[in-house]
Amino acid sequence: MTTPPSLEVSGLAYAYPDGHQALFGVDLTVGRGERVALLGPNGAGKTTLVLHLNGILTGGAGTVTVAGLPVGKKHLAEIRRKVGIVFQDPDDQLFMPTVREDVAFGPAAAGVRGAELEAVVRKALDRVGMAEYADRPPHHLSFGQRRRVAVATVLAMEPEILVLDEPSSNLDPASRRELADILRSLDVTVLMVTHDLPYALELCPRAVILSEGVIAADGRTGEILADTELMARHRLELPFGFVPSSVV
């Protein structure tokens, strides 16, 4: 039996109650284990698309399927376990007195208890290199450490898809590199929403440009970043000194 892709989006269109049309028929398939960068200017519809992946937004046209399950009320609890979103600000995700309790929160709510819960927490913290900080209050950690703990809170649920919202923002160079090493090591499908184009190139072999509510490009990240006309058309710019020829 063929394993379904991690994500299938077909004909997804969505308008907000105020009439603003954010998506105009998005088609996107992401295979298991792929790492894909979702690029685009502000207002392109990236957040709207992401919020459809775990059923926070519903009611538009088209379909979204995660690991073969249609996103909808019937499968909502399972879908929200399968789609783990790491917010841009880890302080939006960490609210318990200790790191251990933050990472345990999701599995405990799902009914995991005792030694099994401790093992789940330990594994998730090990995967992000934060096991030795389990008893620390999150607000005593550096920003980069808090972001790694936020990733662990999602990994503890064993997601199908890890969605990262601007994962490199506000990180110093060492923290940025450490997070990149962690993300490369994970055996999970990654959808990375980012304006950090060099980081997208480093971590994601494939990139998708979402612009004005439609998929404007889908291909190898290096080739997309080297297409100066395409980049300019969709208000995407590489950092000063990062020449397009270096990304092919």
TrEMBL record:
Any one GO molecular-function label of the UniProt entry: ATP binding
Domain ABC transporter: 7-237
Keywords of this entry: ATP-binding, Cell membrane, Membrane, Nucleotide-binding, Translocase, Transport
Membrane topology per record: Peripheral membrane protein
InterPro entries: AAA+_ATPase (IPR003593), ABC_transporter-like_ATP-bd (IPR003439), ABC_transporter-like_CS (IPR017871), ABC_transpr_CbiO/EcfA_su (IPR015856), Co_trans_ATP-bd (IPR005876), ECF_ABC_transporter_ATP-bd (IPR050095), P-loop_NTPase (IPR027417)
Domain of life: Bacteria
Subcellular locations according to the entry: Cell membrane
Pfam families assigned: ABC_tran
UniProt cross-references to PROSITE patterns, sorted A to Z: ABC_TRANSPORTER_1, ABC_TRANSPORTER_2
Family recorded in the similarity comment: Belongs to the ABC transporter superfamily.
NCBIfam families reported in the protein's UniProt record: cbiO
Main function: Part of an ABC transporter complex. Responsible for energy coupling to the transport system.
Protein name stated in the entry: ABC transporter ATP-binding protein
Source organism (scientific name): Streptomyces narbonensis
